[in-house]
Amino acid sequence: MKPIGTLEYKVELNDTIEKIALKWNTVPSEIQHLNRLVTRVIFPGQVLYVPDPNYIPPQPTSSHSSKAKLTNSILQDLNTLEEPNHSPTTTNNDNSLNGINFFKVIIGQENLQPRLSAT
Predict the structure, then answer these.
(1) Among candidates 57, 46, 36, 41, which has minimal Cα distance to 11?
(2) 96/115 Cα distance (integer angstroms)
(3) What are the tens digits of pLDDT across the range 65-114?
(4) Residue 60 has what pLDDT?
(5) Which residues does 16 contact at the CB level (< 8 Å), separation at least 6?
(6) Which of 15, 18, 50, 55 supports an S-S bond with 5, CB 3.0-4.6 Å?
(7) What is the pLDDT of residues 31-79, one digit of tens each?
(8) Cβ proximity of 45 and 11 under 8 Å
């Protein structure tokens, strides 16, 4: 089975693995690996797999969208925690609010300007 991102190359007379590697901008061990060769012995007419210089591996797309969903979910939770309760029986924990705002700065959802609170 042909490895992904490779081309077929037919070995020519006087070719060596080293010459082929140089021609395809790779190293001999990579050609050995792609072709499951135990030794560096090759023969004219043999078909070898070589790295395709034009191959671009596909980029994963799901991780970015799931990261955005997670960030939005965290922001919603943070926004519910953000407004302190100023009733006489509770104390305003400024350190908690600073931590929430710091986290928002870290994930890029808040600017670095300090908030003035009316206490």
Answers:
(1) 46
(2) 14
(3) 555 666 676 666 666 665 555 555 545 555 555 666 666 666 665 555 55
(4) 80
(5) 40, 42
(6) 55
(7) 999 999 999 999 999 999 999 999 998 888 765 555 566 667 666 666 6
(8) yes
In three-state secondary structure terms, 70 is: helix
Helix (H) or strand (E) holding 64: helix 62-82
| Residue with token string 């305003």 | 92
The number of angstroms, rounded, from the C-alpha of 102 to the middle of its chain's C-alpha atoms is 25
CA angle 101, 106, 108 (to 5 degrees): 95
The greatest distance separating any two alpha carbons of the chain, rounded to the nearest whole angstrom, comes to 91
